[in-house]
């Protein structure tokens, strides 16, 4: 019976065949232990000299790392393994022998591993991170589908920017200027006016010359947009969504979290509602913590966000930022026009902002004013302004950065491990 490692529990006591790669091996004279992987998981294959033909045992001992093979064996329970099963090997068929695999069990530097990212993905740690990423994506679709959202795909090539052109990648679109999208939000607003509640999931690009552990040049965003939803409605969706994906990862990625050494007790606390702190109170708090250099009107950097987050054991909303700090489309607070109805959601444990969201300006005159104030070309935004001219309604939305969320839930330090092939300031290979 041909099967996969993740499915061996269905064949306890039976002989199966698995297509796999040899991740590692060790032997003790009369027994060879093969660490096998097939993409669905990892399992140990045990080859006992006295129970197989001499040629099979000899072959097992000579196998090289990352050699591909078909392994035949009997599935047995193994209480010592986190996986719970092992394979008593009865036969081996080599498909392709790998010679001098570059990533050995010894320690390697980060640059070396990044140069070999196409192979580093095969490791147990990277496998676990990618499985957690996949679970967040799966749970995202499940949540928004259950909540009645429609998936919409905004364009990647755009003629304008939602947040200014300073951090955009410029290209030529035949005889016109175009940019790689830094957010699908403006298009999602149009979609919300047609379909009510929508969400997108796709790549975005920022030409920001940053080298921090939280930044990528190309990353993926989940961007919901909701007609007839105001500021408070928006925050409720965010905290319910984040709670949902955290609980899904805890339920479905136990083995991966254990492999990464993640302290799951911290994740088990993540349930809506989340605490909130206003920008005003955050400034006061930071002053109390010794951040004397920051004044009202300044944006928060990573150290400020971390200091605020350390005061909570759950994600925390920082709300009502100064209007001057935020993009043109954010709705001013009707009681206080110098701040906007927005919130950033800061993850605990120093992982920084994972969501930015706001109620959007829905008054046609105000949005025209804001476009001019920000020095944006009215012609480029004509279609966007028309959304307010034909049946405008209050609406809200947000964007969640997938890679930062993966980093937080998996407990890895740098976002470069949370995407299959990271694009960094000085890296576009492989």
- Second rung of CATH, namely the architecture of the largest domain: 2-Layer Sandwich
The main sheet comes to: 8 strands, mixed
The total of helices stands at: 13
Mean pLDDT comes to 96
Q: Tally of extended strands?
A: 19
**What is the CATH class designation of the largest domain?**
Alpha Beta
- What is the assigned CATH homologous superfamily of the largest domain? Bira Bifunctional Protein, Domain 2
Helix content: 25-40%
- Rg, rounded, reads 26 Å
Q: For this entry, what is the oligomeric state of its chains?
A: single chain
Strand order of the largest sheet: 7-11-12-19-18-17-14-13
Q: Compute the separation of the termini in Å.
A: 37 Å
The outline comes out as elongated
Main location: cytoplasm
EC number: 6.1.1.22
InterPro entries: Aa-tRNA-synt_II, aa-tRNA-synth_II, aa-tRNA-synth_II/BPL/LPL, Asn-tRNA-ligase, Asp/Asn-tRNA-synth_IIb, NA-bd_OB-fold, NA-bd_OB_tRNA
Subunit structure: Homodimer.
List the helices and strands and how they pair.
Blueprint: E1 2-3, E2 15-27, E3 31-37, E4 42-48, H1 54-62, E5 68-77, E6 85-96, H2 110-115, H3 117-120, H4 124-146, E7 150-151, E8 157-158, E9 170-173, E10 176-180, H5 185-195, E11 197-205, E12 218-227, H6 231-252, H7 254-259, H8 264-268, E13 276-278, H9 279-288, H10 302-309, E14 316-319, E15 332-333, E16 336-340, E17 342-347, E18 352-359, H11 364-373, H12 382-389, E19 395-401, H13 402-410
Parallel strand pairs: 1-2, 4-6, 7-11, 13-14
Antiparallel strand pairs: 2-3, 2-5, 3-4, 5-6, 8-10, 9-10, 11-12, 12-19, 14-17, 15-16, 17-18, 18-19
EC number: 6.1.1.22
Keywords: Aminoacyl-tRNA synthetase, ATP-binding, Cytoplasm, Ligase, Nucleotide-binding, Protein biosynthesis
Family: Belongs to the class-II aminoacyl-tRNA synthetase family.
